Amino acid sequence: MKTRLLSLATLLCAFSAFNAHAESIGDAMETCRNTDNSLKRLMCYDRVAKSLDQYDGVNAQVSQVQAYKEANRNQVSPRPGVTPERATPQPKSEFGLEHKRDLTKEASEIAVSIDSLKKNLRDKYVITFSDGSVWQQTDDTYMKLKEGQPVAVERGLLGAFFLSVEGLNKRMKVKRVK
Predict the structure, then answer these.
(1) pTM of the prediction?
(2) C-alpha distances in angstroms, 54 versus 11, 19, 61, 154, 161?
(3) What is the three-state SS of 104-151?
(4) Where does the chain have alpha helices with state H?
(5) How many CA within 13 A on the CB side of residue 146?
(6) Which of 23, 25, 49, 124 could form an S-S bond across to 137 if both were Cys, CB 3.0 to 4.6 Å?
(7) From which residue to which does the signal peptide run (predicted)?
(8) pLDDT in tens for each of the 178 residues of the chain?
């Protein structure tokens, strides 16, 4: 009698395990989503992701996602909150290489005069030049500057810019604000 009961229990467990594996991926994800404990929910999602092939209908959903990706491959979706007319389209071959442009044809130094000087809350200069550009000091170098003074801004390494005054052996690191 005990042998029959044990074999019946084993068969029931085997069939219940088979039914658990026969659920769809959507049902498995819903089960994970309804888990209250965040760690257990994450473990549930990981378990589902590691064993995707055991769920019914996964191949159809994967092919549907691949068809969707193929259909939308040429469309570029802007970041959330950026309207399409404000997004600047760039060729895909140039994406991420903006900082590696050839700068040999561009000026390595400009000579301007200071139009106005201000100090911000961190006691750094905010300088407006005669050409209308606004630059801000980024290091702690002290230089005595005054309005109308001619200065030079030169390009440094790794995208840095330095402000220098003729006759003074000092440079102040600056960045362009406007």
Answers:
(1) 0.44
(2) 20, 11, 13, 63, 59
(3) CCCCCEEEEEEEEEEECCCCCEEEEECCCCEEEECCCCCCCCCCCCEE
(4) 2-21, 25-33, 38-50, 58-71
(5) 1
(6) 124
(7) 1-22
(8) 677 766 667 766 666 555 544 577 778 888 888 989 988 888 888 888 888 777 766 666 667 767 777 776 656 555 555 555 555 554 555 556 656 666 666 778 889 999 999 999 999 999 999 988 999 999 999 999 999 999 999 988 888 899 999 888 999 999 998 8
Residue 58's contacts (CB-CB under 8 Å, 6 or more residues apart) are 25, 52
Instruction: Give the contacts of 33 (CB within 8 A, at least 6 positions apart).
Output: 41
